[in-house]
Structure formats: C-alpha cells, structure tokens
Amino acid sequence: MKTDQYIDELINREKQTELNPYLATRIMSRIENPIQKTVSRWQTIAVAASIVFAIASGIGLGNSYTSNSDIAGGLYVNDSQIENFSLYNTDGNE
Amino acid sequence: MTEEQIIQEILQGNGSKFKLLVEKYQNMVFRTSMGFVHNKEDAEDLTQDVFIRAFQSLKTYNGDAEFSTWLYRITVNTSINHLNKIKNRGLLHFAEDILQHIFNRASEDKNPQQQLEQSERDGAIRKAIDALPEKQRTAFVLSKYDDLTQKEIAAIMQSTEGSVEQLLQRAKSSLQKRLSPIVGK
Questions:
Q1: Contact residues, B window 49-78, toward A, CB-based 8 Å cutoff
Q2: Residue A36 domain-assigned?
Q3: What does each of the 185 residues of chain B score in pLDDT, given as a tens digit?
Q4: In a mutagenesis test of the B interface, which of A1, A2, A3 is the best target, namely the one with the most B β-carbons within 10 Å?
Q5: Among A15, B41, B132, B145, which is least packed by CB within 10 angstroms?
Q6: Could you give the C-alpha distances from A56 to A35, A62, A67, B2, in angstroms and in order?
Q7: How far apart are CA B112 and CA B64, in angstroms?
Q8: A39: alpha, beta or left, given left = phi > 0 and alpha = psi -120 to 50?
Q9: Domain extent for A6
Q10: Which residues of B touch A3 (CB under 8 A)?
Q11: Which of A13, A26, A31 sits opposite B55 (nearest CB)?
C-alpha cells in the first residue's frame, strides 16, 4: 500500500543518517571526566549565610530606630517678614 | 575478548575498556534513538546519555539477558523519558523538521514543490508515529528501525511474542487510519 511505502521510505532515510565519528570519544571523555558541579556546597552555604545576615541586619536596624516625637519646640518662620514685597513694587519707588 | 570479559574488566576498574562496547553498540543505540526522536542531534545526545547510564549501572547487569537486550531497554527508557520531557515542544519540533528537510535532507533530484510535499508527508508520518501509545511505539520502532524479530522485541519489552504481534498490528492499523487520508491519496 502507498502509506506503507511512504513510511518505509522515511524510516530508511532516517536509518541512513550517519553517526558522528567522534561520538565514542565524546562518550568516553564524559565518562572519564564527569562534569563537575560548578557551585560547591560551601559556596552555597556562604551565599545563604550572607542573605540571612543581610535580612537580620535590616531587621536589627529597623528595630533600633526610635522616633523623637517628644521634641517640644519647633522653628517658627514668618515668611512674610523675610522679604518685603513692596521692594519689587515699582509704583511706590518712582 | 568476549563481552563478559570486557564487562568484568570494567567492573574491576578498567573503565577504558568500555570504549569497546561503545564502538560495538553505538550504531544500534543511535538508530533506535532516531526512531523515537527523528532528529540526528537529539539522537546523538540520547546515545551519549544511554552509554553513560549503562556505564553507571553496569554492576546491576547480571547477565540474565544478552548485553544488547539490556542496552536496548536502557535506550527505550531513556528515549521515552526524553520525549516526556519535551512533550510541549510540539510547534518548535515541527518547524525544526520542516527546515531540516528543506535544507538538508531533501534529495537534489526533486523540485521545490516535490520537496515541500515530501517534507509535509514526512512530518505527518512522524507525527503519526509519535502519537502511538508508548508500547505500540516501542514495538514499532524496534521492529522497523532495528529490524528485530518479535521474539527479540518480546525479550526487550519483557513481554510475550503474542502481545508484541498484537502491538505491531495495532500500531500498523493506527498508522494506516491516521495517514491514509493524508499521504495515501
């Protein structure tokens, strides 16, 4: 049948695909030199510890803040006394 | 040097002897992987993974079955696991197929129209094979890509010859049903 013929044709083409001649060497190299973990356990622990330290420092600093709401005095400034607007009024100086 | 002797030497620490097994079986593993992934690069990656897994679990090989049967089982399992991982890559895979067949595989004696028709037909066939249930697909690949007998397939799948025959018949009729309206016109 036509369908069978097409299927067999495709399979035969796929079967003829040539293997990389260096594949065996690549496999042996991966077996003899397994990929090392790029991040060591101690590095992970150090990063985790520094994150914990940063968070704890933030919480500590936040807790050490006390507001000075008991300050009684304040600075009173009367803006209208700083500069006399009439100085800029040309009508009065003519 | 027999296979058993090679395996014994590897287990005693002479890992370099594994290369003899790789060289002997790499084509077999690659061909089976091709049946599952239909793509050279993926099949080569799978071949590497299969041999690394085989090396790591060589001490579990007890010699009950042929070494090739044991290796076929690893190949089938590794391929199926890989396919389950990339299940959602459908569209990308399809585009890859089309490009690969247009630029690399299409035979030069065909005009662009014929090449396009062939790549569409190939895509439909691959899709139909990929849509087969896991066991039917395994039996089909081992039968068609590796030309194994039903007895050999039964040994790999740890099943009976009768059930392998049934799987192959179902796979064939399922492919016919799916592909006849598309490619058999």
A1: 51-52, 55
A2: yes
A3: 888 899 999 999 888 899 999 999 999 999 999 999 999 999 999 999 999 999 999 999 988 889 999 999 999 999 999 998 887 666 666 666 666 666 655 555 667 877 788 888 888 899 999 999 999 999 999 999 999 999 999 999 999 999 999 999 999 999 999 988 877 65
A4: A3
A5: B41
A6: 36, 10, 21, 65
A7: 52
A8: beta
A9: 1-58
A10: 175-176, 179-180, 183-184
A11: A31
Domain assignment present for A5: yes
* B75 domain residue, yes or no: yes
Q: Has residue A66 been placed in a domain?
A: no
Number of domains in chain A: 1
Any domain includes A63: no
CB contact under 8 A, B183 and A2: yes
Give me the number of domains chain B comprises.
1
Q: Specify whether the CB–CB gap between B76 and B138 falls below 8 A.
A: yes
Is the whole-model pTM more than 0.80? no
**Both tokens of residue B122?**
């190939």
- The answer to whether ipTM exceeds 0.90 is no
Interface of B with A in 76-135 (CB under 8 A): 105, 121-122, 125-126
